[in-house]
Fold this sequence. Notes:
Blueprint: H1 3-14, E1 27-32, E2 37-41, H2 54-64, E3 70-76, H3 86-95, E4 100-105, E5 109-114, H4 115-118
Parallel strand pairs: 3-4
Antiparallel strand pairs: 1-2, 1-3, 4-5
The structure holds tetrahydrodeoxyuridine.
Amino acid sequence: MDYKKLIELAEAARENAYAPYSSFRVGAALLCRSGNVFTGCNVENLSFGATICAERCAVTKAVSEGERDFLAIAIYAGEKFTSPCGICLQTLCEFAPDIDIILPDGEAEYRIYKLCELMPINSIPIK
Ligand code: THU
């Protein structure tokens, strides 16, 4: 699947974002090696700490459906250029330390980052 399409799926997933506390709505689309795509959105909570980011929502959906082999994840937060938070990077690292992280960019359509560019010092889990 091409990465532009993956961004479109992340944009569509953002429609379901539940973000009454921050008003910052995020969607994600996670591409598995199988070709399946799992989407996610942020789901906030009054406690703040229980908030789930769009990326972890997508990863959790995928793993709970038996998928662990991830190629790429696109993240869409409207006009704002948004990169995954530290917790989401570590969660992605658990399953896919080499994953492509696709971030939409006004000028170049999108930029592709490797996880290690966004989290240079990480803990690679033992498999
Ligand atoms: N958020 C995400 O879902 N993904 C990101 O990459 C950045 C932050 C969410 C968490 C919270 O609901 C809101 O955006 C503000 O931080």
